[in-house]
Amino acid sequence: MSHIGKNPIIIPNNIKIELNNNYLIVIGKLGIQIKKIPKEILIQNKNKKLYISVNSSKYKSIWGTYRMLINNMIIGVNKGFLIKLKIVGIGYRAYNDHKYLRLKIGRTNIVKLLIPSNIKIKCVKFTKIYLYGSNLQQIKLFAYKIRSFKKPDPYKGKGILFVNEVINFKEGKKK
Question: Which CATH superfamily includes the segment(s) 4-78?
Fold first, then answer.
């Protein structure tokens, strides 16, 4: 069993944390994030550190999960998160028009995606997409939505993939 939940979360000076009923509110320079916390998970704020504990054995399994969610909220409103995607393939390109991300990925029509209001997108050289925002879950969800239109091909390696992603190539037919 992992003991991630036992580790305290250090709160930076420019972050304000409030606990109202079962809601945790984190306020920082990049915005506000609100998360509903179950009654069984207890949060204590002591000396610029958050201590998380559980009073029910039923909730011990999600203790570490909530600790990491709260930690990601604090990092998100303080620094933000950046996810990088790259497009591999001849003629494949991406560009953004104010509200929309347009993908030219070998289909008859250009794929047009509405960009969520809390995510900023920058396309570099038509082959790299940078996603930036304060909510890690929403950024990753949108990144996987973009990736789902053209997953990497295991034979040629063409498609949309994360920058650090390694593709395990399959061997083609032999004569």
Answer: Ribosomal protein L6 (3.90.930.12)
